[in-house]
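Internal ticket - ligand job 328, magnesium ion:
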Amino acid sequence: MDANIIEVTNLSKYFDDFQAVKGISFAVKPGEVFGFLGPNGAGKTTTINMLTGLARPTAGAIRINGSDAVQDIAAVQQMIGIVPDESNLYDELSGYDNLVFCASLYGVRKRERERRAEELLEQFGLADTGRRPFKAYSKGMKRKLTIAAGIIHEPQILFLDEPTTGIDVESARQIRRLVRELNDGGTTIFLTTHYIEEAERLCDRVGFIVGGKVVRIDRVTALMGEDEKEYIIEFTLGEGNSRPEAGLDQAMLQAFPGVKINRVDHRRLRVIPEKREPIAGFIKFFEDAGQPVYEAKIIRPTLEDVFVRITGIEIAKMKREKEGRRKR
Ligand SMILES: Nc1ncnc2c1ncn2[C@@H]1O[C@H](COP(=O)(O)OP(=O)(O)O)[C@@H](O)[C@H]1O
Ligand SMILES: [Mg+2]
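stdout (structure tokens):
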């Protein structure tokens, strides 16, 4: 097994007497995409800031590539790239000049800085706007340039704090693709998000973080596998109402003992048999009852189902909170 590239032990952060991060421990392997998923105020930014040397832990240890990142952040700075949730670039400088400036901070040589800046503008679809001042960029363009700046020195590990929050759908899609490409090229990714779909699509492993605590860490596939034990078939029936709903459900319970039935709406119902069985029997049952079946599909669990079960947090609420905060 590979050594861990990031190792965090009992990490805590207090702001005065408020504990924002409560003794969390986790490890990330080289080449992984690891994500922290949690609602507003969970402690994601505080954690990422400690990992990247932007905030000092109150207690605990952080090792990055074997170096002590708390005592000696300088030793790890060249290995890591940082993309904060709010941009850290200069409004008055052009996109190109921002990139060249960031490269100089990392000690990249002049010729190489200019080549890298051009290359990244091209890669991020910003070649046409590279000469415009940063302040004239849209939110999506700003976020892309901030990511370009974060990887100008080709770091081994990239930290991204909510990379797609608050930007347009197309830019978000491009960013997810870029993150995957970087990871395919060998970059280890640590990201935070409050978008469940993003964690599901991008991450190999996720940690659920709530109220400063990590309540669960696992591979996305393993988390979803747990809920897959329940086998759900959703049927969409015709408008024909030869039998009232309750009567139909009663008849089904008799025909298929042990089955559970959840009504989604007047045409759709979810059937949970005790064990896996062919769906043909159910279709025949509906047709015999004068209810043509328009669609039958197996419902796969989503990461959302798992997150809700483990944390008890409703996703809709999580999104509302976040967006409310951003508007202010
Ligand atoms: N500089 C600070 N001073 C005091 N409290 C803070 C500070 N930064 C964050 N907090 C608090 O710590 C908690 C975690 O915040 P944060 O890490 O930003 O959460 P997240 O990024 O998950 O939304 C929140 O309750 C927040 O209000
Ligand atoms: Mg945050």
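Auto-summary: The pocket of magnesium ion (ligand 2) is lined by residues 44-45, 85, 161-162 (CB under 6 Å). The chain has a mean pLDDT of 91.
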